[in-house]
Amino acid sequence: MKLGLISASLLVSACVVACGGSIESTTTDGGADANQFTPDGGRKDVSQPDTSVVEAGPFAPAPHPPAPQVENYGGSVMASPKILPVFFAGDGVMQKQIETFLAALTPSTYWTDTTSEYGVGKPTVLPTVVTTDAPPQTDDAAQLWLANMTDGTHMGWPKPDANTLYAIFLPDNAVITIPQYGQSCTSFGGYHYEATGKNNESIVYAVMPRCKSFGQYKGLDALTGTTSHELVEAVTDPKAVSDPAFAVPDKDHYIWALVPLGEVGDMCTYEPQSFQRLLGGTYVVQRTWSNAAAKAGNDPCVPHLTDPYFNSVPVLSENVTINFGQGGQAQTKGVKIPVGTSKTIEIDLFSDAPTTDWTVQAEDVHSLFYGGQPELTFTWDTQTGNNGNKLNLTITHEAKGQYNGSEFILYSQKGLKVANLWFGFVSN
After folding, report:
1. CB neighbours of 236 closer than 8 A, spacing ≥ 6?
2. N or C: which end of the chain has fewer CB within 10 A?
């Protein structure tokens, strides 16, 4: 995440487990036992004898609305990243572990898979800086400290340039606060941002707090998961304030910029299978968003896993206005449902290979993430299906949302370990 929005990352476990339980307990469809599948993946009615002859053909994902594309807003990426690890005195054990992690990250296919399509090259890890200074306790203090340390008078600290990323690893028990957003490890798990140097140059930095846990992961696993997320985002959207690059989804999918947030790491944060030991089978890293994979109808979170990708997509074809508050208004795609009324929308199910049925659950973002009263409630004709099925979801708009509408999430889920998400918007 870039500075400015609460991190979704810390909510992964709680969100998926909570929603997963309700998914399995509210399924109304008979599942695979009540249906058969045609060779192209669609359902057919088996209540009558089938005398047709069907030629088997190659599997194809069923038609569905397109996935988001994270757009470049004109800014530059780090074509040749130089990562400067910064540690604080007395943190030798974790320092060595992170240095080993970064050494494994540099030549890895994980890095290539997550960054190369955006124009980012292989990173160089600069010699670690160990400072005797006290860790900054606020982001404002961190920016002032970085401006001072990068003024060219401090040994080991390179001057800022377009490819240098200052990776700050806070020690155990250190807390950094962003006044309008909260404390590290409570309101956010890490962040990257842009400061201004003493000569008005841009300083790109990432802050990795030492959280006790990150979803289901603890200790080093929690830290490497956070680090991978922030490093990938920092090199694909380095000047998040002055000159954003890959920062926000396309206009038809603007609602994704609220939850899950719009950078390439954020877009894959919630799926429980996004955090994997993909670096030599040792280190936990986060899979991140690929525009190319999304456009092809495959799993948009890379590196790819071996299991088939499946998802459920709301058909949102109306032009509506979303209000970002001080960020202004924008036209996007959604469904208009005045408060106090209901409307039924189509949900298209697809997969990129044959797979077993999955279950779909809709959740109201305002209540699920922020603890408020539900702004949206949902009823289904059925909640289980497969590639080619079309479900009917009736949405009732219970209360006015602050964004000129309300956000919802569709969870397509198998058990509690595999879930793929899609986000939608209901205007007031």
Report:
1. 77, 78, 115, 118, 120, 245, 246, 263, 264
2. C
